[in-house]
Amino acid sequence: MGVRSLAASVEDLLRQLESGPPGVMTPRDKSLLATLARRLAQLTEVPDASAATIEDASFRHERIARIHFDYSLAGIFETDSTLRIGRANPAAISITRQTMKQLRGRRLDELFSEDSRERREAHFALLREQGISHAELNLVDADGALLCIDISSIQAHDDLFIHVIDDVTKAREQARALREARQAAEAANRAKDEFLANVSHEIRTPLNGILGLTQLALMTELTAQQRDYLEKAAQSGKTLQRMLNDLLDFAKIESGKLEYESLPLDLYEVIDELAAIVAHSAIGKCLEIAFDIAADVPRRIVGDRLRLSQVLNNLFSNAIKFTDTGHVLLCVTRHNDSDSGGPDELHFAVTDTGAGIRQQTLARLFQPFTQADASTTRRFGGTGLGLVIARQLARGMGGDLAVESTEGYGSTFELRVPLRRAEVTETPSSLPIGDVALDIDRRHTRDAVTRLVALLRGSVVSSSQAASFRIVDVSDDRLPSPEAIGVLRGPHLFLADAESCVRLKPLLAARADVDVVARPLTPLVLQQVAQRLRVQADSGHQEPKDYGIPEEFHGAVVAVAEDVEVNRRVIAGLLERAGLNVRLATNGMELLDLIGDTGPPPELVFMDIHMPGMDGLEVTRQLRRQGWAGPVVALSAAVAHSEQEACVAAGMNDFLPKPIDPEDLWGVLTRWLKPRPAPATTASREVSPEPLADVKNAMTENDISALRTAFIEAGIDFDIALSRFLGDLAVFRIAVQRFAAQHADDGNALRKASQLNDRRRVAELAHSLKGASAAIGADTLFRLSAVIDALCAQPSEMPFDVLIDGVEAALGKLARVASLGY
Questions:
Q1: Is 557-672 in the same CATH topology as 70-167?
Q2: In the prediction, which pLDDT does 437 show?
């Protein structure tokens, strides 16, 4: 019974008692009943508490659901299990452009267009199977417009499904527009790259023609005025070429398409190449140039050799360009910031005594197309991109480039790169250079050479003490006379500029223990010269050398694939001296044919990596595919870790660096050939066109001494090269003669290719010349061709003219010494 019914009953009872006989109830009883009736009446005015709470909550939820349904920005449909629409909110009506009358009773799936039929059927099938689904479908509204609808459906009850839809047409159009814009931007970038490549080609082609024809015209008979005009035209053309290279480099860096390597490299070789370029670019300037390398700087590091060389070349080129007097120094140091826990760094500081840079200019020095002042552009030309490119290359290597300068006192540009040591053991590559006496007045040069001597485990002693050799810094305007050179006592090394070196070389022809090199002095050059001078000093009382020729491989058949004849004959001669049968191939196809012959298969193959056409890596891969399982030994002048890894990946088993050292070759034979009893007579090789002559050395000691002097004058490291031929002077001379005949025209070919800016042809010629000259110990020619080969890999202007002059001069000397008839 409810409260209201109970109150009514109490009031009715009270009325009955009052109308009944008196005495049934006392006045007090009547008063209590009346109070109870009033209070029950009051309770009837307030609903039941629990019922009110339930009724209010239900009402509130229904009201909120109604608000959500009516005011939701997303369209909402309620359908039964057959997808017939029962209700639709205003947003759904707005999206479909239809009225509720038109929508009620229709199947929801019928609203979506036929072009999304498969997706529509998959969506509702998944809804029936799993009770929930999401899809993107196309819908045609009442106005005929095609809309992209995002729909999410869920089963609420057995016969109630709720579908939430959203019009994402604009979002999809914006996404499509963004995608098309991105594709258009990428296409524009590709078009820009193609445009730059085409512009580069179209500008370079006539420019190369202009430069080439100008050089040819300068070789003809001209009046002084005509020669002046043509030289200025050639200089302007080279300036334009340099500006074009800078612009293309900058565009490549800005587009983020410049890639950086992280490979093992020999820092001494990088410094040596830099010195060769610097020595020639400083011709005509009275500058003190020195390379100062700290003792704790490692030789073998990991980095990008090309980019490192490019930055250093740029810094030194600028320093020499803007410094007329004083000095230009390179200081290489190792730094460790132990306080911050940062990695070790190598610092390359290039310091000059040029005009310096104003402080207000320093802030914008690394901005594109900026130079110190307008007079710089008028005097030297250029784009103002060199330092911008240098800094971006430095940062690409993980380092940075900074500058400090005081106007009127010069500048210091410091390149900082992370120091990552190569995973090799730092072992001395030669004996200590011994005690060295210095006759050097210039302070920076003396300090740098002193540290170089210490770097190579030598000691600097006073002029009065006995020394292994003496280093003398020659004044550029006052060279020693032939008489002064003739009375020198003991080995001497002169330091001079590149131009003075050319003038001094003929004066030193009579002294095998005196040499001259161009400043700046580098570790590799000092090491080589010290070894050569020591050999010359000891040559008068040397014991016959034991070359350790193995005797346990007589009769073994080996094949050699090598395109350079001198290299081919050197290794063939060494193998024949060990009693092996040598089968020769000049290229990869010949080797494949040779191994496929019916004769006895080779037990070991020596494979040159850099052969024209099919290189050694591809030949090895073909051999392995054909099932040939014998050992293959790579031959290459490049000893980088990456190249050795490529050889292993191609299927090679070992690596023999060029120029070939006999002891290294004997080691390879020991590793890969089985020993066998030595026969009574030495076996002869099966295939070898024009075998090296087996002549007797019938020369007198005076003849040999004169020949040694002539070879050294021609730039050949006579004793070291002779050891590669196992001391056989006759075979060595024949190799030099054939080299001179084969490469007589290389200087002219290099010049023509350089004038046409044919980098590939220049690189091919320089690489071939480098390998062949190393085989016969032609150090001067090797160094020049190695610098040209390295420069070909750089995108900057090719400063080959002076280097090619040196190549032609060295080839001329070799031709003369090869023709000597002792």
A1: no
A2: 92
Residue with token string 């230009």:
328
Lowest-pLDDT choice from 90-94, 199-203, 329-333: 199-203
Please tell me the distance from the alpha carbon of residue 361 to that of residue 382, in angstroms, as a whole number. 17
- Which pair of tokens denotes residue 107? 């199947």
The confidence score (pLDDT) of residue 291 equals 95
Q: Which homologous superfamily does the CATH classification assign to the domain defined by 70-167?
A: PAS domain (3.30.450.20)
pLDDT score of 715 more than 90:
no
Contact 163, 108 (CB under 8 A): yes
The two tokens of residue 156 are 């609420």
Classified by CATH at the fold level, domain 694-822 comes out as Four Helix Bundle (Hemerythrin (Met), subunit A) (1.20.120)
pLDDT at 379: 43
CB 164 within 8 A of CB 152: yes
Per-residue model confidence (pLDDT) at position 377: 42
pLDDT, one tens digit per residue, over 667-702 is: 889 888 888 765 554 433 333 333 333 333 455 666
Q: What is the pLDDT of residue 2?
A: 54
Domain 263-418 classification at class level? alpha beta
Helices vs. strands in the chain: H and E counts, helices first:
29, 22
Q: Which residues contact 35 (CB under 8 A, 6 or more apart)?
A: none
**What residues pair up with 335 in beta bridges, in sequence order?**
345
Q: Give alpha helix (H) positions in 46-168.
A: 49-71, 90-96, 100-103, 117-130
| CA end-to-end span of the chain | 144
Which residues are within 8 A (CB) of 660 and not within 5 positions of it... i.e. 6 or more apart? 567, 570, 571, 574, 635, 724, 775
- pLDDT tens digits, residue range 590-615? 888 888 776 788 999 999 888 877 88
**Residue 88, beta-bridge partner list:** 77
123 neighbors 108 (Cβ within 8 angstroms): no
